[in-house]
Amino acid sequence: MPPTAPDFGPGIDDYAPHEGQRDCDPAAKPGLLEFRDLVLGAYPGTQGMGISRECGGPGVSEHKEGRAWDWGVAADGQSAIADDLIGWLLATDRHGNPHALARRFGIMYMIWNRRIWQASRADAGWTPYTGRSPHTDHVHFSFGWAGARRETTWWTGRGATAPQVGVGIPSVVDHGSGMVVSGVEGTGDVAHRWQNQAGGAWSAWTPLGRPSSGAVGRPWALVGRYGKLAVFVRGTDGTLWHTWQSEAGAWAPEWVSLGGHLASDPAVVLSPNGALSVFARDPEGRITHTWQRGPEHGHGWHGSWVDMGGAAQGRPTVLVGRDGGMVLFIRGTDHALHHRWQTGTGGPWSDWSP
C-alpha cells in the first residue's frame, strides 16, 4: 500500500514547471533522497536504480543534477505496485485539488511503460513515450528544483519541525510490517509515526486529527480484524473517542465518540471473534466497559457502558487468555493486584479476585 500522507489543508503548490538539465551537479538532492526512502519503505521487494548520473554520460537528464530517481519495478509482474503509487500521487485530494501529491512533492514528470505524464501538460494525462528506453523495468521520476530542494508543501506544509508529543506516554504497536507509535500533543491533537518494514526507517510525525473536545493521556492503538489500525483515546470531556483505518487503509474522516464517563486512559483488546472490547476506570474508581458485538451482529458497538465494579487506581490492563476469554487486571485502592476473567470467548465473567 502507498505511504500515509499528512492531512494537508486546501492550499497547494502549482504544477512544477519544466526545468530541464542546464548544469551538472549529480549529488543527490534531499527531496529525491527522502522520496526514494519513502517509496522503498512502502513497497518492500522493489528497488532503487539510482538518482545520480555521471556528467559525461550520453544525453540531457535531470539525473546529472541529482533530481531524478529510477524506481525498479517491472511491467511484467509488478505493474499493480507501480500503478498503486502512481495512482496515489495523481489522485484528487479531499479539497478537490487534482494530482495533489505529485504537486506537493514537486514532481515534474514521470515515465512508465512507454508512457509519460508531465506536470506542465497535466490536462493531457498520460501520453505515448518514444525515448530510447521503454521504461518497462522502472518508473522514472524527475523533480523540479523546488521539490528537489524540499521547498514544496509535502515538506513545508507540515511545518518546519515535527509535532512534539507532550502529554502522557506514547502507545506502540507492531502492525506486522514494522512499528507504529501514537501519542497526544500538548494541543490535544493525536499524532503518529510508523515504519513500513520491520527495522525500517521511521516516517515523520504525522497528524491524526483530534476528538472535537481534544485528547488527553495515552492513546491505545491496536491491529483490528482487517489487519488495520484502530486508535482509542480519552477526550477532555471524559468520553472515549476512536478513529480507524478501513480495509483499504484510509483513516476515518473524523474521530467518533463512544460515550462513557472515563477517569483513566482506555485499555482495548481484540477477541478471537474479531470484536473489540474497551475497559477504563470511571471517576468513582470502578471499571466501566463497552464492546463490539460479534460477527453475527456486524461488529456493531454495544451502545452503552457496563459497570464491572472493582476499586481501581490507574488504568486497567486486559488481554485474551488461552481459551479465548478476556482477563482483566487492575491495581486496587489497597495497592494489591486484582483480576477478573471470562470462561471462553464471550463467556461469563468471574468475580474480582486478588
Please characterize this protein's 3D structure.
The protein is mainly beta and 354 residues long. The protein has two domains: 30-156, Muramoyl-pentapeptide Carboxypeptidase, domain 2; 165-341, Neuraminidase (6 Propeller), CATH 2.120.10.10. The chain is built from five helices and 21 strands. The protein has a six-stranded antiparallel sheet with strand order 1-2-6-3-4-5. The protein starts with 29 loop residues before the first helix and ends in a 13-residue tail after the last strand. It comes from Streptomyces dioscori.
Descriptors for this entry?
single chain, 354 residues, mainly beta, Muramoyl-pentapeptide Carboxypeptidase, domain 2, Neuraminidase, 2 domains, six-stranded antiparallel β-sheet, four-stranded antiparallel β-sheet, 21 strands, 31% strand, elongated, Peptidoglycan-binding protein, PLL-like_beta-prop, ARB_07466-like_C
| CATH class identity of the largest domain | Mainly Beta
In one word, what is the shape?
elongated
Helix and strand sequence: HEEHHEEEEHHEEEEEEEEEEEEEEE
Fraction of residues in β-strands: 25-35%
Instruction: Report the CATH topology name of the largest domain.
Output: Neuraminidase
Helix content bin: 10-25%
List segments where confidence is low: pLDDT < 50 over at least 5 consecutive residues. 159-167
Mean pLDDT, all residues: 90
**Gap between N and C termini, in Å?**
46 Å
- Let me know the number of strands: 21
Placed side by side, the strands forming the largest sheet appear as 1-2-6-3-4-5
| Radius of gyration computed on alpha carbons | 25 Å
